[in-house]
Amino acid sequence: MKLFFTMLGVALLLATNLAQGQGGSDLLKQGQEVYENNCADCHRSNGEGLPVRFPALKGSAFVQGEAQPLINLILAGKKGMPAWAEHLKDQEMAAALTYIRNAWGNKAPAVTPEDVAAARKK
Ligand code: HEC
Questions:
Q1: Does the beta carbon of 28 lie inside 6 Å of ligand 1?
Q2: What crossing angle do the helices spanning 113-121 and 90-100 adopt, rounded to 10°?
Q3: What is the distance in A from the centroid of ligand 1 to the CA of 56?
Q4: For the chain, which residues make up each domain, given as ranges?
Q5: Helix 90-100 / helix 67-76 crossing angle, nearest 10 deg
Q6: What's the rounded Cα separation, in Å, for the pair 104 and 107?
Q7: Residue 80 DSSP class
Q8: How do the pLDDT tens digits run along the chain, 122 residues long?
Q9: What is the fold of 22-121?
Q10: Is the beta carbon of 80 within 6 A of some atom in ligand 1?
């Protein structure tokens, strides 16, 4: 009986890990798509941008820093960069930001659709 429960526990653990892994890679895949369609024209697929004109996202401390200032910049845009508030849904923006925070050797926690929704309300 004890063995049964141990096995059941292991199976459940495996299942949750798989489910989470799956969810994570789906989000990154969607994020890459949103990025390629909307951001790569300027910041380029390799995240390196173009010297002087378009800042690199690869290795950027701002990109890998706090989520809220990053979301606010994407929502509102900045000189030379369009605002995205009207064009991207919460889910798409969360996916794209999670992607740029974890592509090209970047490493930072995921951005959730709830984070984006909260930033819109401010
Ligand atoms: C038309 C060109 C263009 C497009 C398209 C564009 N950007 Fe930008 N982006 C810029 C420019 C120019 C800046 C610099 C603005 C400034 O600092 O004055 C910038 C700045 C940024 C920064 C700040 C980088 C840093 O380290 O300070 C981030 C993050 C960013 N863009 C993300 C994105 C994302 C995500 C998308 C797609 C949803 C996107 N951009 C689409 C031109 C663009």
A1: no
A2: 110
A3: 9
A4: 22-121
A5: 120
A6: 9
A7: T
A8: 666 666 665 555 555 444 444 556 788 999 999 999 999 999 999 999 999 999 999 999 999 999 999 999 999 999 999 999 999 999 999 999 999 999 999 999 999 999 999 999 98
A9: Cytochrome Bc1 Complex; Chain D, domain 2 (1.10.760)
A10: yes
SS (H, E, C) 15-62: HHHHHHHHHHHHHHHHHHHHHHHHCHHHHCCCCCCECCCECCCCCCCC
Spatial separation of the C-alpha atoms in residues 51 and 112, rounded to whole Å: 30
What pLDDT does 39 receive?
Answer: 98
Residue 85 tokens read as: 């508030």
